[in-house]
Every structure is written in structure tokens, then in C-alpha cells.
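User: Integral membrane protein TIGR02587, Pelagibacterium halotolerans:
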Amino acid sequence: MTTRAETKKRQGRLPLGLLRGAGGALIFALPMLMTMEMWQLGMTLDRWRLLVLLVAGFPFLLLLSREIGFESTRDWHEDVRDVTIAYGLGIVTSAAIMAVLAILGNPGSFSETAGKIAIQTFPAALGAMLARGQFGGDSEPSEKEETFGGEMLIMAAGALFLSLNVAPTEEMQLISFRMTPWHALALIPLSLAIMHAFVFAASFAGGSEISPETPWWSAFLRFTVSGYVVALLVSLASLWLLGQLDGMAFERALRVAVVLGFPAAIGAAAARLIL
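Assistant: Predicted structure for Integral membrane protein TIGR02587:
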């Protein structure tokens, strides 16, 4: 049962959490806020895709809040509060920055303005949610046990961060067009090797603790390969939501996903180290 003193202490930490969240939203969303393709997608993308992005993003951030949030949470009600605050910060931050940069354009065009803000809201909310892991969490030690599902969730968040930054750009399509199937096949083991070096071989702080008795291939399959599959799924979802796969042949779509999976895999591996 939460005492009055504990409640007051947690309320006192909320302003700091809001500042962290606003800073995280700005850092994570700024590259997308200043990318022309994102402005255009905000105007032209089907509104149902924007709705799917916002609606599907809520449970994802809800699960992420169980791992890292503005502060340690004790129940799902507090997680819902965290995610709602993150979405609010995402909307306010995106709207404020785009207004200052004269990106929103004609104030009378409500649909275009709403679309530009909506497409930036989830990336900014993700940044706000991850801000606690980036800028330092609670002073109290965390008692949460690390789980395989939790690590995959954090890797998905890292993959989303980098994939959303480059998925709407023309360069993704151009690179995949220039690549042969052999280039795409070579990119897969390269992505896996970099992921494995990031998380295990380089022994960076935050890497998984693997017992000496554990064979390297076991850790490689459990974490690196699983993480790469997550990165590819995130890449495909990002490309589809942003309309980048529309009218594309299956083989070409896979090639684009492998190209986008390269930065997504690096983002996934880095997230496990940072968060």
C-alpha cells in the first residue's frame, strides 16, 4: 500500500520526468521533424495508416513503460498514465517545433496540419518514453528482472528509432534499386556480425551476461538472430505504414526491408547497451 509520503515523493519526481520526456521527444523526433519526406507524408498518407500508427503505438509504448518509463511504475494504471503523457508530449513538441520552423504552413488547412503533427507524434512519444533510459532513471535501484521478451521489446524500440528516421527517404528506394540480390544477401550477415559485436563480443557496458559455459552459437541464436528478426519485422512494418511498399513486387520489397534492416539492426543492438 502506497503511503502519503511515497505518493508525495513520486509526485515531486513527475516534473523532472516531464522535462526528460520533452527532451527525449525533441532529440528522437528532430531528424524527422526536419525531413521533407515526413512533411509530405503527413499531407498525402492515407489517414487510416496514420490512425493505425497511433493506435498500434499505444500498446507498444504501454509494454515499453513496464521496462522503462518516466519513473518506476507499480501497476497498469500508471503505465497508461505514462503513455498518455508521452503522447501528449509528442503532440506538443512536434507542433511547437514545426510551427517555429514554419513547416505547418497554412493554418487554415486543418487536415494537412493535423497530418503533419500526427505522423510525428509516435516517434516523439517513443523518444519521450525512452528518455528515462537515456537521461538517467530513478535514484532508486530497479527490482525488475530482465526477461527475453523485455530485451526484444527494447531492441524493437531501438530499431524503430533508426528505421523511422530513414524509412520515408528516397535513398532507401535508390539503394535497394542499385543493389543486386547478392548485395542484399551480403548485407544480412554483415548486419548480424555488427549486432553480435555490439552486444556480446565488444563487451560494452550493458551487454548481456553470458555464462562461460554458454556456447557462442547459443547466445548468437537467442539474442543476435532473434534481434535481427525483430529489426526486419520493424522495418517491414515501418515501410508498410509509411506507404513505401505500395505497388512494389515481393522481391523488391524484401530487398528494401533488408536495406532498412541494416540501420534498424544497429539501432536494436545499441538500444540494449544504452537502455
